[in-house]
Amino acid sequence: xxxxxxxxxxxxxxxxxxxxxxxxxxxxxxxxxxxxxxxxxxxxxxxxxxxxxxxxxxxxxxxxxxxxxxxxxxxxxxxxxxxxxxxxxxxxxxxxxxxxxxxxxxxxxxxxxxxxxxxxxxxxxxxxxxxxxxxxxxxxxxxxxxxxxxxxxxxxxxxxxxxxxxxxxxxxxxxxxxxxxxxxxxxxxxxxxxxxxxxxxxxxxxxxxxxxxxxxxxxxxxxxxxxxxxxxxxxxxxxxxxxxxxxxxxxxxxxxxxxxxxxxxxxxxxxxxxxxxxxxxxxxxxxxxxxxxxxxxxxxxxxxxxxxxxxxxxxxxxxxxxxxxxxxxxxxx
Length: 333
What we know:
Shape: elongated
Number of strands: 0
């Protein structure tokens, strides 16, 4: 069992409307393969001076995550087909039960039994032989109602921890995507953009953190509309981060799915650099007159054009840059 085997199974499962035949121990074999990778990663981490910067540890981590994602996609694809097959079997129609894994065979038999039982119950209800409300007591509903909530926030005690976990998971996923795209891409343009996007992203975050007290102080005593407009500024700045990291995330996903090419990686890198330039142009367009200097050099015509645009256009430029990134991901192969 290896990653190529899993991707082959995934590809065949996508192409077929019916379930492809898998050996009984398929999921067990995948579990053993992932466990071996984790053991190998642990040994590599022990050998490395710094496990967090080790290329081998990073490669094994990427392979583990990819294997888990691919097998989950295989499972979800097969479940849809399995439910359809169970429905046909419960209706008395011929159904092929071969080619299922041991876990799928148990689920298939349970589904058929449950569908047949439920169908019989519904028919009895329609015939007036049983009370349709009988057995509707849902213990999970009472459990949900009994769950304590925070009277101050109206949320369950675990909700705050769950939100923190989600934020940590998002940061971890972004860090892995940046690392994978930098390691696996053959495009120098894309690899350098990964570092540039990380640096620009850090500068944007620092800008918000340092400017936030000033923005808050300047809203004191102003109208509600002025306060709202200034309060939106940090949100807009942080919103620039999503397209900024999009090329690296796209590349990491493409490599995970086996759809990456050097040409596609390079195109996404170029689109990323164009987006960074669009941020610069947005700052030029929105710059107050007292902060504008006389443009010179190769960019002078572009800067003069940016100065002539209304400040509202400063939002349109990054939006256009973000659309270019999405278009490249969709069109370039």
